[in-house]
Amino acid sequence: MVHQQNGLLSDDALTRPEDGDTYDCSIAVIGGSTAAYTTALTALKLRLDVCWVQPQRVVGGQFTAQALPASDDGDLLRHRADLMTIGGEEFAISQSQRLFRKRQRQLQPVTGRLVDDPGGSWVCPLSTTPVVAATALNEPLLPYLKSGKLRLIPYAEPTSLLLEPGERRRVTGVVCQDTKTKHSFTVKASVVVEATDFGDLLEVANLPSRVGQEARSDTGEAILPEEARPQCQQSFTFDVLVERTRPGQGVPIGAPKEYGRVPWLNLQEFTGDFWVSKNKIWKKRDFFNAFGIFRYRRLQRRSLTKTTVSPGDVAVINWGTSGHPQRGQCCGNDYRTGHLIGLSRSERQQQIQRARIRARAYIHFLQVNGVPDLKPRGDLTWTKDGIALEPYIREARRGIAMTTIRHEDVASSFFPNQSRARAFDDTLGIGQYHYLDLHGNLVDGHVSPKGKDVVALPFTLPAGALVPIDTDSLVLSAKSIGTTHITNAAYRMHPVEWAIGEAGGFLAAFSVWTGKQPREIVGDESLLRKLQGFVTRNGIPIVWFDDVSHIDPDFEAIQVMAAAGIINSENAKNLHFRPYGSVSRAVVCTALVNLLGLDKINPTQPTFSDVQPGQHWAYGSIEALKAKNKVAGMGRRRFAPNQAMTRQQLGFLVKRAMPQAHDKAFAKTPRDRQIVQRRDLSRVFYALLKAKLGI
């Protein structure tokens, strides 16, 4: 009977191939990342069969196998509702991600009570143990495993892609190997999703890709040097779960034999204290300080008071670099000596093993240097020593996609006085992390953005970034999408990778449904808007608005109309949509011109006395509609551009502009004399857009 225990699925939930086996499915998901999970779950919810190949038994990637269920949330996700806005979990993430977070809280009460943050870490607003995260992730999968809709193959990795030659290569399947039995097997699918944490499908098939820090000529990012530096990559980390014990009850992890003998451990870097400099005055926070290293990513607590650190509390040790008044830069278990991408598999494994040894060495260092009361919690990591099953990966081989998301598309310095980064019109998701979080390794030549160049504004996820430039039937996901070394630093975070997986799942499913290639869907406006409608109808935001929930009845219309550039924010300086706000006649005309795709015209002689050339911003739009006889004035050569439009007036306008679509457009909106609200306009015009595109 398929079930789970301690976050692990039962044996009968798993498929273990014999040598030479072949499996056929609609969608093949390859990889064990967080995005692999959300891609698979999305496709399953859309009633497609999925074959999922991953390197471990536990699902969930960053949250589980990598032992970091302390979500790296952007500031907006932490936002509390106020008079003008709603709570961050209602607008900054999808409905399914919100449900996952809710379930984590339910599974890990604190002293019997439900709390917003069961772990109470000081850097993350929501953290739980890996077992709790895995349990919450497994629950939605169980029905599909029982029905056979999902075939989950663990302990396996891809060895080659099956490619059909032609004008454009087309992926027909993946050859994989069971890493334990060494059995080789094949998965054939209509669409394959690259969702590994290393970008392995790109490597094994030698598909166009980029590694490490690119050259300026590769991406066009002005901040980059002239030459590429592929070995400049983000560091990676083996996370370790430890419990604070009562005095004298610590359990030594033991020193690795390399301790103090090899340069890549560099014990001089290790620190148990966190030093903070303010106004050139340094202050020390010891390991168990309320804002020290232990509580930095605490996952489980005994006290309802978040700042209290008690025996029995559990933390994941995931410490990067930090300053020290005498020693300069200190470090914890971040592994910065080498890199992983672009190496042979044997070289990669050597680096991974060294990183694991470093993690053990760091815990041993802490235990013999003032923090003896620590006990590794292997029962929460499915390992003997509390060290994660896999390293926490920050960077992968990236596919060269139809769209490359560049520094200029994300950083605050390129969007002065604006609240959003570039709004891609083919967006399938949103993401936000407050800065470009680059954990550089020790290779010389890293570019380090400063000031507004490192601040990341709320961004969108273009569908084009999921589509490889020259290969069909393949969708890019996780960290292999079309980001750059720099922009990956914001797109790699937990909530964003979840969104990337959902977007990839919808794109793959839509490709199966329509028989169209992902590139064709992205390039065809009618298919793209239909896809965006499916995405938003399922509670996934694709444009940033902090006052429209994913359960709002007009959510789909508001989101798709904004993505299409037809009805946007009133003010680019904030994230408000103002759904109940009124709409002026000039705004409606401008939106209609955008919807119809008309060219603005600027005659020297104005039609209306109160809309003069060079004086009113909507002059070109109003004149374009008048020239097509699609708009009328208010009498006496007046248009009243700034007057709020009524629903009745909007009905007259729609009747003139698109008479065949009038009845559908007003199916849910009365034609009365009430003022048109911004949500009304989105609802009516969305119906017009669908009629125009035939969707």
Structural key phrases:
4-stranded antiparallel sheet; 8-stranded mixed sheet; alpha+beta; 27% helix; 24 strands; 695 residues; globular
Structural features, described:
This protein has 695 residues and is of the alpha+beta class. Among the domains are: 236-380, no CATH class; 558-693, no CATH class. The strands form eight sheets. Strands 3, 4, 5, 6, 7, 8, 23 and 24 form an eight-stranded mixed β-sheet that branches. A four-stranded antiparallel β-sheet has the order 14-15-11-19. The two termini are 43 Å apart. The mean pLDDT is 97.
Brief account:
Among the domains are: 236-380, no CATH class; 558-693, no CATH class. It contains 19 helices and 24 strands. A hairpin with a 2-residue loop joins strand 1 and strand 2.
The total beta strand count reads 24
| Terminal residue distance | 43 Å
**Amount of beta strand:** 15-25%
Number of H/I helices: 19
Task: Estimate the helix proportion, in percent.
Answer: 25-40%
Low-confidence stretches: none
Over all CA atoms, what is the radius of gyration?
Answer: 27 Å
Chain-averaged pLDDT: 97
